[in-house]
């Protein structure tokens, strides 16, 4: 029935390549839809339609022509907490990248998320997808929370040029890597980027906690500003300030427990 509804807008002769039930986030609302994909058709104009049909009332929520040029896009995906999140992505040649550009040096401010594929090579491979609905919760959270922390800094401090000193500048932006190693029970700033393990016996993937993401990014900010020695009192101050910014970011986000750290990724919180 959904295919028949979609064909009314697309055309009766278009070939359906996929029809699945999917939650669709659009203009601030969530819809249970049938997502109908049609094959590429060069006539009369190049088209590759996708139609979202409301599964409850049969209305068309959105019809899009997915023959696209390289440029910014908006993706979505489900995080570790089961919530669907939206974030900036980049499309090139029909492939979506988890970043605002797939290549280095463009644009000047780059926010990208990679996967190490459970080995310890950095930064790994930039995450990519064919339909812009991301099904790796660790990647969704690393990218969404990374963008959130970036915006938190930008919105709360007037002069933002210092953010891109030191490692951020040499890495050409804010880079994150997930799936570092196997059962790696930690996250860290390595001098140029954030790195998140998947956890093991104690933790879930570390990118699933906003305050952990803010904590690690703030280590990079601290290094960019004053490069505190990581030992004794300066090292303690370095760690403490990362915790403080993690708390402030959690308050800004509306976390129910902003003064707790990493509580939502602990497998046993007792």
Written overview of the protein:
The chain is of the alpha+beta class and 270 residues long. Helix content is 27%, strand content 28%. It is built from 5 helices and 14 strands. The chain has helices spanning 2-10, 137-156, 166-170, 210-225, 232-253, and strands spanning 16-26, 29-38, 49-54, 60-65, 71-78, 84-92, 95-97, 111-115, 125-126, 128-129, 133-134, 174-178, 187-189, 194-196. A 5-stranded mixed beta sheet has the order 10-7-6-5-11. A 5-stranded mixed beta sheet has the order 9-8-12-14-13. A hairpin with a 2-residue loop joins strand 6 and strand 7. Helix 4 (210-225) packs across helix 5. The longest helix is centred in the last third of the chain and has 22 residues, at 232-253. The chain is elongated. It starts with a helix and ends in a 17-residue tail after the last helix. The mean pLDDT is 87.
Spans of at least 5 consecutive residues with low confidence: none
Q: What is the rounded distance between the termini? A: 49 Å
**Helix proportion:** 25-40%
Biggest sheet: strand arrangement = 10-7-6-5-11
Largest sheet: 5 strands, mixed
The portion of residues forming beta strands comes to 25-35%
Using the alpha-carbon principal axes, give the shape.
Answer: elongated
Structural class: alpha+beta
């Amino acid at each position: 029935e959904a295919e028949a509804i979609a064909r009314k807008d697309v055309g009766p002769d278009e070939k359906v390549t996929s029809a699945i039930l999917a939650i669709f986030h659009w203009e601030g609302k969530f819809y249970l839809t049938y997502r109908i994909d049609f094959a590429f058709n060069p006539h009369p104009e190049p088209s590759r339609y996708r139609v979202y049909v409301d599964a409850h009332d049969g209305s068309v929520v959105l019809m899009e022509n997915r023959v696209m040029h390289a440029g910014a896009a908006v993706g979505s995906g489900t995080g570790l907490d089961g919530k669907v999140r939206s974030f900036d992505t980049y499309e090139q040649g029909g492939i979506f990248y988890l970043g605002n550009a797939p290549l280095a040096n463009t644009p000047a401010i780059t926010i990208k998320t990679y996967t190490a594929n459970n080995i310890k090579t950095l930064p790994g491979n930039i995450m990519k997808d064919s339909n812009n609905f991301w099904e790796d919760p660790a990647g969704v959270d690393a990218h969404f929370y990374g963008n959130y922390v970036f915006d938190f800094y930008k919105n709360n401090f007037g002069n933002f040029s210092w953010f891109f000193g030191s490692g951020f500048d040499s890495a050409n932006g804010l880079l994150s890597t997930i799936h570092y190693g196997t059962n790696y029970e930690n996250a860290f700033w390595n001098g140029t980027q954030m790195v998140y393990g998947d956890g093991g016996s104690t933790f879930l993937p570390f990118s699933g906690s906003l305050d952990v993401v803010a904590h690690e990014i703030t280590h990079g900010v601290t290094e960019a500003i004053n490069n505190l020695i990581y030992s004794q009192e300066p090292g303690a101050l370095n760690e403490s300030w990362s915790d403080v910014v993690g708390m402030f970011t959690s308050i800004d986000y509306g976390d129910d427990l902003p003064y707790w750290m990493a509580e939502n990724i602990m497998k046993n919180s007792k």
